[in-house]
Specification:
The chain is built from 5 helices and 11 strands, in the order E-H-E-H-E-H-H-E-E-H-E-E-E-E-E-E. It is of the alpha/beta class.
Length: 234
């Protein structure tokens, strides 16, 4: 499988967080992102650990520290050495280029050097998938589809589907496409508007209707998500 060379990520984690670190590693690898995930078992006899770590951090484009209470409380962990070296490497990118992608595995502070950097939360479990999608968007410069709607509506009501919170990586214009899945009877005012509307159909019992939103940027990168609405009898 070919992996991108220009978007390699170094994952920095505390040993106690190995399970979640492994999960992130797999999620990013499935998105065809090159992950530089250093582990002692990967080192050959005779290799110098600090030198190998520094060489690998120099090779990465993004440095992703996985913050947890353990990460913060263990002041002498090797991951702090990795982070401190990454601070030096980050200077080559300047203030306007993102190098750090801080991720929080639980409710905890981050290193003070990253207080002003956008962080991604992967907790609680219900936010994991959305957090991973945001990570992929940042690393691959992809758009992110965000679909919202009222959860419960009455037959005959005018319903709005909201896709206007979708975003592109560079704040460029997005192309939108909405569709009902599976296709049944809903007629949208437009399939290509950010916020189309429809009239909730007449139903005799609570009925769920699901819509997929697909967005695409000028570079041809796309993303999709779904929103579901329950229509109740009038």
């Amino acid at each position: 499988m070919h992996l991108s060379n220009r978007n390699k990520v170094f994952i920095c984690y505390a040993r106690e967080d190995i399970e979640k670190s492994s999960r992130i590693y797999g999620d990013l690898l499935n998105a065809r992102i090159g992950v530089l995930w250093m582990d002692k078992k990967r080192l050959m006899v005779g290799q110098h650990w600090p030198n190998e770590i520094r060489g690998t951090i120099n090779e990465c484009r993004y440095f992703m520290p996985l913050f947890s209470r353990t990460w913060i409380e263990k002041t002498n962990g090797y991951f702090h050495n990795e982070f401190n070296y990454a601070l030096e490497v980050s200077k080559r990118y300047g203030q306007d280029a993102r190098f750090f992608i801080p991720v929080r595995l639980e409710d905890c502070p981050v290193r003070p050097e990253l207080d002003d950097v956008e962080r991604i939360d992967l907790f609680p479990e219900s936010r994991w998938e959305d957090g991973i999608r945001t990570l992929i968007q940042i690393i691959l410069h992809k758009p992110k589809a965000v679909a919202k709607a009222e959860r419960f509506v009455k037959s005959g009501e005018i319903v709005t589907l909201y896709g206007n919170e979708s975003r592109s990586f560079d704040e460029e214009e997005l192309w939108y496409y909405w569709e009902e899945i599976p296709k049944r009877t809903i007629a949208l005012t437009s399939n290509t508007e950010a916020n189309p509307q429809f009239v909730a159909p007449v139903v005799h019992h609570d009925t769920v209707f699901t819509f997929r939103l697909k967005v695409r940027d000028a570079k041809g990168h796309d993303d999709s998500t779904i929103a579901s609405i329950t229509v109740e009898p009038f």
